[in-house]
Amino acid sequence: MSIAQPASEEIRVLADAGDEKPPRRRDGVAWALKGFTGLVLAALYFPIVVLIVFSFNDNIVTTLPLREFTLDWYRKALTNEDMLRATWNSFHVAFFATALTLIIGTIAAFAIDRTEFPGKNVFRRLVVLPLILPGIITGISMLNLFRVLGFNLSLETVILGHATALISVVVTQVYARLLRLNRRIEEASGDLGARPWQTFLYIVLPNIRSALIGSALICFTLSFDEIPVTFFLTGRENTLPMYIYSTLRKGITPEINAIGTLIIAASLTIILLSVWLLRDEGREEKR
Amino acid sequence: MTGRGRRNLFAAALVSVPLAWTIVFMFAPYAIMFTYSFYTKKFPMFVPDFQFGNYLMLFQDIQYRQVFVRTFKIASIVSLVALLLAYPVAYCLVFKVHSRKIRMAIYMAIIVPLWASYLLRAYTWKTILGSQGVLNSFLVWSGILAEPTPLFLYNQFSMVITLVHIFVPFMFMPIFTALEKIPRSLLEASKDLGVGRLGTFLKVTLPLSVPGIVAGITFTFCLSFGDFIAPFLVGGPDGFMIANIVQSQFGTALNWPLGSAISIAILAIVLLVITLSDRLERAGRLDLG
């Protein structure tokens, strides 16, 4: 599907585009556009800034003017047993969902790239569908399945749900990388006497490594933050987003701002890390 | 067995893993959901049946029809507003930002929030728009309002703001890619032929970026169409969307057959939008050889 545009590919496009000389004359339209871009960026980050600022504000209500600086909300959040348990559950789910996704998704990408089999076109469309399908459909349909199979809902069913939804991410990233991979080096490896598994391990794997790491990091954050699928597939145990969601029913507390700030900080770090890894790899390939 | 035969067998075994996964966890669930959509609700759950009552209900019951229309409306408005915000930004980045490093930094800054907690970004709007929230307290403090207004939150306005904020990066990405792909030589040719800036934009740039616009709208429309978190957090009574109805059928209302029928309807709409956009994109794609 042409809609799926993996981010790392974008970065490569950006890296390939050269610097251009700025035009000399004054450009009113350009300044208007730049101003507009600045406003959109500000609007995009405004809520995140609000979240962070109020996580340090000594007031139970999220209202201006600001009061004293406090770390109380962090103290409360980090000693909240339910929240800690939910956080641990989220790590558990995200770890196993990412591992599953990575294995199945990579094999699927290879299957699409290198093999022919009946129904391949349907398979190909189905596997990337969750990129664009509202999570509720994945959640509901799998809930139906587990009922038919007689599975009890638990964190394990959540893991299966996340893996199903996120395989699309890995497939698009890895497939895009495989398309660019020069097949001759694999042939050369075979000609030089390497077994297929050796070629895979020493030639193919290092070449797609950054796509694997990048998509793994993205899957981990997406799974950690996931809510629509989790909502329908979790049993008595809650993940962190589900815990936050259920406390929001009762009303807002700044504790959520505190834990939210930690989550956002962690997600942004992981994402920037994945981008940095991808970019560095790109440079090496060019040499 | 020959080496080749063994390799083929290995390939087949490999393919069967993801194939089995999609059959068991995607195809089968959809098939079950489809079957359930013809069943009849009966305490405590439902009984097998083959009737179209659940689907008819979607058309006949004024309440469901209203929610469907509202969901269409909101998803369309969200797509339109996101387009109006994302297009100028993508355009500015591709054509007006000349430093590669700055372009890349801004690009990242726009798409990174896509991966940062969806729930938290929706929730924060609640704290901003609420009657004791940041916006209200600012307006009162600065003297613009005499007292806080409840008008900002729990309506369609707050839902559109929240959903646009969440989905702008989805709109931005494909448009940026489409604009990047336009050969500069075309724009120069247009300029050399004496076409003004506006003319060049309308006749060259805009038509060539249609695939990006179509892809962006597809993403934004489909994902906001099926959202139930934002309506729950900031929507209020007149902001209920179709996915909230599904949610309640599988929860308190306990009518799985009806919930399945609505889910199938959502799935069908999403597939329809994808098919349409594929067509449009193909028709809009010019061969630039």
Question: Main traits of this protein?
Answer:
heterodimer; A: 287 residues; mainly alpha; MetI-like fold; 0% strand; B: mainly alpha; globular
CATH topology of chain B: MetI-like fold
- Give the largest interface pair and sizes: A-B, 94 and 100 residues
Integer average pLDDT of chain B? 86
Return the domain count of chain A: 1
Q: Spans of chain B with pLDDT under 50 lasting ≥5 residues?
A: none
Intertermini distance of chain B: 47 Å
What summary fits the major beta sheet of chain B?
A: 2 strands, antiparallel
Shape of chain A: globular
Classify the helix fraction of chain B into a percent range. over 70%
Topology:
The complex is a heterodimer of chains A (287) and B (289).
Chain A: H1 7-16, H2 28-55, H3 72-78, H4 81-114, H5 120-128, H6 135-149, H7 155-180, H8 183-191, H9 196-225, H10 228-233, H11 240-250, H12 254-286
Helix pairs in contact in A: 1-12, 2-12, 3-12, 4-7, 4-9, 4-11, 6-7, 7-9, 8-9, 9-12
Chain B: H1 3-36, E1 40-42, E2 45-47, H2 53-60, H3 62-96, H4 100-111, H5 118-129, H6 134-141, H7 156-181, H8 184-192, H9 197-208, H10 210-225, H11 229-235, H12 242-249, H13 256-284
Antiparallel strand pairs in B: 1-2
